[in-house]
Write a structure and sequence with these properties.
five-stranded parallel β-sheet, 5 helices, Rossmann fold, about 40% helix, alpha/beta, globular, 5 strands, single chain
């Protein structure tokens, strides 16, 4: 997918983690567009192009935190993966939770990957860059639907 514009939806309520993710992606070789929403309700509006997101581009990848206000990441993941129009979008759970129950449930809800956010800044950068490299250099993703 090199040379193509890559679209990522980050569902994250921590301004610090949003900033870190933006900075890590800024250095990337791959051209990318990062859209950010702060809760599951907003994420579903974005994905379904409702209200102020009517012109939103369908993301190639979703980075989803589990611990969100309004509608948490677990509920959001279930909603994405049970929607025929959205379920093919890869969802990477990127969260602080190390709970085995969250890992198991996320995979049972069809998360494509589960990553615990590192607390170390350098390690966080490496994780974000490896997510991008894996999903956009190595993996073949389906063509975007309009």
């Amino acid at each position: 997918m090199a040379g193509k514009s890559i679209s990522i939806l980050l569902v994250e309520d921590s301004p610090d983690d949003v900033l870190l993710t933006r900075e890590a992606l800024k250095d990337a070789k791959i051209v990318n567009e990062l859209d950010v929403v702060s809760d599951g309700v907003e994420a579903m509006e974005f994905l379904r192009k409702k209200g102020r997101y009517a012109g939103a581009e369908r993301p190639d990848l979703i980075l989803l935190d589990l611990n969100l206000p309004k509608k948490d990441g677990r509920e959001t993941l279930i909603e994405i993966k049970t929607d025929d129009d959205l379920k093919a979008i890869p969802v990477v759970v990127l969260t602080t939770s190390e709970a085995e129950e969250d890992v198991i449930k996320s995979y049972n809800y069809h998360a494509n990957c589960y990553i615990t956010k590192p607390v170390n800044l350098d390690r966080f950068y490496k994780v974000v860059k490896s997510i991008e490299e894996y999903w956009f250099d190595i993996v073949k993703l389906p063509e975007k639907k309009p």
